[in-house]
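Incident review: delayed structure delivery

Summary: a single-chain prediction request sat in the queue longer than the usual turnaround. Root cause was a stuck worker, restarted by the on-call engineer. No data loss occurred. The affected request and its eventual output are reproduced below so the record is complete for anyone auditing the incident later.

Affected input:
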Amino acid sequence: MNETVPVAPGRLTAGVLRGGAAISAVCFGVALAAGLAGVAGDGGDPTDLPALLAALAALRPWAWASLGILVVIATPAVGLLATAAEYASISDRRTALLAVLVLGVLTASLVAALLQ
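Output delivered after worker restart:
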């Protein structure tokens, strides 16, 4: 018998993690450049989406730093979803389920932190 063993995927997961790191670095870079350029802005509430979008358009440093932080926080969760999808695509249900369970733990931790 000449069976082929499926190779563990990782391209999508690696791309998600690299992309998240690059996007957050750009956001932090814009925040730093805007701050050094003297763009005014006292800060705001990153959970107020209209205010955040307006502040991003106005190049407010706090908004770009907040976006960078949000991307840094979201990247591992999106990476876990990508991992689950990749392993499910090669029928490795155990590893896919493990990725989903880890994502569940992260989600529960976030909910617990927000409820405090």
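Verification: The two ends are 58 Å apart (CA to CA).
Action items: add queue-age alerting; document worker restart procedure.
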